[in-house]
């Protein structure tokens, strides 16, 4: 039986950049589980590092419990695993938010901390992605490079309202103003979508330390050039951001889809037990 780790190749790196003395980004990826998590923390006294670490830890914990059939879902058996993936990701974001917010309330040095978050599950030749803030997911399919997430940011709201153009936004001084973040308030609204996955696709998860420094064309060209070696590709993306100034922490995770992966492969086969 095909295992997800045979169908998916993953590689990623995180870097402090050239101007920060510590790294507040946290990443995790696991091809066997089809899981990718990236968080970009914010807050003084290194609290951003605490927030992003909690977020990634909680997402991994919830997904692990779900795949061990310990996660309570109250649904009828569907035609696909989308409802299950939806519930798992939304629960993961919820518990991450609770944990970060609770820590911030109880520890004065962590007051006001929060994090952006983008997390995804690959299953049944599909991808479910949940995100909060301006960390992004892109897809390279053939020669088409597409941003699959939409920033929860002040600039994106201005673009949507027609006040500024996307090109204006690239040169704005308000790049880091997010309108949603995990852990800032007692509740959080994540945005969640599902996408079909095709063999040959390459997915990029990144923090704004990459997307703010390099334009989409340069990012796409880099991924294309290193499509056969995504470990080297992730290093080149970090280098690209640093070559352009490296003003922020930089994180990049690449996922290359080598072949289709039906629902009964790997650990996702346990999901069927949740609906019986």
User: Largest sheet at a glance?
Assistant: 5 strands, antiparallel
What's the CATH topology label? Phosphatase 2c, domain 1
Report the end-to-end length measured between terminal Cα atoms.
Answer: 22 Å
What's the CATH architecture name?
A: 4-Layer Sandwich
- What are the secondary-structure elements, in order, as H or E? HEEEHHEEEEHHEEHHHEH
Provide the residue-averaged pLDDT.
Answer: 88
Count of discrete alpha- or pi-helical segments spanning 4 or more residues = 9
Q: List low-confidence stretches.
A: 73-78, 272-276
Number of strands: 10
Going by helix content, strand content and strand pairing, the class is: alpha+beta
